[in-house]
Sequence to fold (819 residues):
Amino acid sequence: MSLAGSGLVLAVAVASLACLAVLALPARFRPAAAGAGAALAGAGGLVSGIAMLSGRTFTVALPGALPLSGLEFTAGRLSGYFVAVTGAVAIPAGVYAIGYARHAGTSRSACVFLPLFAVSMLLVPVSATAATLLLCWELMALTSLLLVLAEHRRRPEVAEAGRWYAVMTHLGFACILAGLMLTGGGSLAAGRHLSPALAGTVFVLALIGFGSKAGAVPLHAWLPRAHPEAPSHVSALMSAAMVNMGVYGIVRTGFGLLGGGARWWWLLVMLLGVVSSLYGILQAAVSSDLKRLLGYSTTENMGLVLTGVGAAGLFEDSGHRMLAGLALAAALLHVAGHAAFKTLLFLSAGSAAQRAGTRDLDALGGLRAGMPATTAAFGWGALAASALPPGTAFVSEWLLVQALIHGLRSGGTIGAVVLPAAVAAVALTAGLAVATFVKAFGTGFLARPRSDGAARATEAPASMLAGMGLAAAACALLALLPGIVLPALARAAGVAAGPAVTGLVTLRLSGAAGELSPLLLTLALLAVMMAAAGCLRALPGRRARRAARLWDCGSGPLTARMEYTATSFAEPLQRVFDDVLAPETDIDVTHLDEARYLVTAVQYRRMVPDRIEHRLYRPVLAAVRAWGTAGRRLAPGSVHRYLGYGFCAVTVLLIVLAVTR
Amino acid sequence: MLKLWRKIRAHGRVAEPPVPGRRGPLAAGLRGSVQIRHVDAGSCGGCEVEVGTAFGPVYDAERYGARMVASPRHADALLVTGVVTRNMAGPLRRTYDAVPAPRLVVAVGDCARDCGMLAGAYGVSGAVRDVLPVNAEIPGCPPRPEDIVAAIREMTGR
Fold:
């Protein structure tokens, strides 16, 4: 067996051993065993993924493992890319879990499923048959669900989030199952010939199933609930690795299994992507819960990825393979970049929330003094997420915009309408992302503490910092030298006409004008900043300096209540997008008993509910409830009636058999 | 509308003729441009009306290079009106501390100069000069806008 296969076998073996160790060891050692198991499984996955990308192949068939169909795993370049990304996310998350779980929860169930979850995500992309894929998919969904529920005793919201997640992930599973059954074969290999209508149905079903896992609007409702309530290393794994499986599924089904397809498929994917990115970042911008904000940001980033995938499909359909390769490379690079910075953000947000005891941005602040390393990590992650140089997302979003702009000339009538709108949407998303992360970092970590918990927060333990450090290094690598993953991208995108982007230090688009060197750009930025700082330091040196207290309008010391909060920072944005967000405002005025012209208290509450969730899910939930209530009349608890049901059923069956025989 | 245009054409400028300026020693270091922060240390409001008039369209003190600003951090000079009450003595001192050097203090009105009719009242901490070093004083209760503009021209040197 090649390196690719043995890496995965090693990952499975390590994860199984870690599970056994967690079950056997006392509570003190459980987090360490689980974390180390997940990290080592991740390392195995990373090695295996890199080997698969460099062309090593393997096939593992276990005919007896599952009745009727058996299990079969095989290597592929696209699979290798997703295995490598998942493995790379599992390493820092596993290391982080060692320190985090020691303070959060050391119960067996909270620890034992962590390595299993990591390894099931590694197995999803290498599944060769539909049955194997569905099994691994379900394993991934169940283990992540149990991990989300780890803190359900402490907080009642966790149970509600778990219910949402369980229902939505299984609806998605049902759609994928139906879609794969319609293809009429077990294998996931390409080259199936289906009629256009059937292929379209399969694709739409797969898009619903995989899209709900990727958190695409309007199937995102579970994501901003489940991701914040999970322990932070699990949030990182879910948000940085598990959502990628949805993208993998869409790419694999659309380009691989169904081999391209009609133009409307990819327009649909692109529409989903654009709507997800805009809606996700808008909700993130007005959210004041730190981890919920990051959850919505995941929806936004997956939306950008889907925009790239949709554009690649459109270009492929119109015969522009180079542009298709460029768009798909941008999407895949964004997958890796998002994995890196979302891991970093969730890990650092998790340690901030754990140490300060709250996730509410309006109660955080001032963590810079107590937690300098965590603050630096979150700051670097926020920069990486906000599509500004030298950030990680900047490179991939630049490539995506380049692909969309260069596609204008070649997309035909539909392209001329859709692509400029997509460019505008990506640009608006990038701008709002900057505002969102300035808010998250500025109000959450800088300024003065707004609560006692934030004031008393102390630095996280070494293993958590090590996890964050690994993720930060990955962010820096992808931000400064994205050239080193380009060959892998080109192979994963499977472009026949050669790589669409080349170069190690300077990225050059082949077949289109445009180049970018993130490293040199960063060096130039650094040089300018240092020159400016040097000038500022040198110039006023000749004048007399005087220290004066902070200007506070002459009245007493400044307090934390005077600071910009996350809510007030987002207020102008919320006002601009009032029609989209539809915030709800409650004002309760309490009057004095004696005179209703005198006011004793005014209570003001403002919420920004998820509008799509309200409009789309409420009627469905109400209908399901009505059905359930109606169905209850059939089963009132009377034994006689149940016996009657049985008697009727047997009689009808006998009559049917008598008539038809 | 046409009537209004005709009236404007017939009347021309209605601003007061420029007040003869005094080139004072205060202008050195500020180079013809003075940013002013106004502090009401306990005024009845009369001096504010006159300061407002001095910066209004009729006297237009801004044409001599002076400008009202919203923060002492941006200011070169403080324009203090009214007696310094006990509650305002501390904030006035802090406002002065917040002004970058070189800085000037102008006491506007009789109350700011010597407490005027409020001298000896229980809530009064003193005149402006008892709290801060004063560079120029403008007498009057309330002071005439011409006098305020003259003092400003002394500061700007224009």
Observations:
- The longest strand of chain B covers residues 34-40.
- Residues 41 and 84 of chain B are 5 Å apart (CA to CA).
- The helical segments of chain B are 2-11, 46-54, 86-98, 110-114, 128-131, 145-156.
- The beta strands of chain B are 34-40, 66-68, 77-81, 84-85, 104-108, 124-126, 136-138.
